Amino acid sequence: GAVVSQHPSWVICKSGTSVKIECRSLDFQATTMFWYRQFPKQSLMLMATSNEGSKATYEQGVEKDKFLINHASLTLSTLTVTSAHPEDSSFYICSARVIGGPYNEQFFGPGTRLTVL
Amino acid sequence: SQQGEEDPQALSIQEGENATMNCSYKTSINNLQWYRQNSGRGLVHLILIRSNEREKHSGRLRVTLDTSKKSSSLLITASRAADTASYFCAAQGGSEKLVFGKGTKLTVNP
Hints:
The complex is a heterodimer. Chain A is an all-beta fold. In chain A, 0% of the residues lie in helices and 51% in strands.
């Protein structure tokens, strides 16, 4: 099956710093990647849809200036949490759709746990 | 929002027993998917059932879909300790977006 990786798998940072999380499709190309966040014991909430070569589409209530998304290649999307605060602490998960693949199939990364002190 | 709801929120059973989890969603769908998540890990796709299907099997998994009630159920038969995880349903409509339910935390005791 298609493999998606995330880096780092966990990160601890001080309040006010920015953190970049990478999402890579390892053995396939993906025009579309998705970013989710998951609070403890809760479900995944879609934050944004990332399209290669164009601006990301953010879900209602997600601050685009706070969560910067860059999808610079067909195998890499990055999420930068700017000026992170403790309330941004969460589990961030990305998924990717295979280019030309069925629209209903997404492959998920292992997630990145962000803790902001 | 199309946010799904699962019940129960938590389920604890003994190895060998069957586990049933239910999911409800709010709007029309093209398909409904079930995922598994081990603690602190990513999601693993289990099974997809299309809106025109009523039942689907995959190994020890059985999924049903009732579009008139906007509900689905996941049955895991002959559960094993390794099945311990959280299970989420995800509804997909006309776009690529997945709307996840709140999940059921399943504990299978050896």
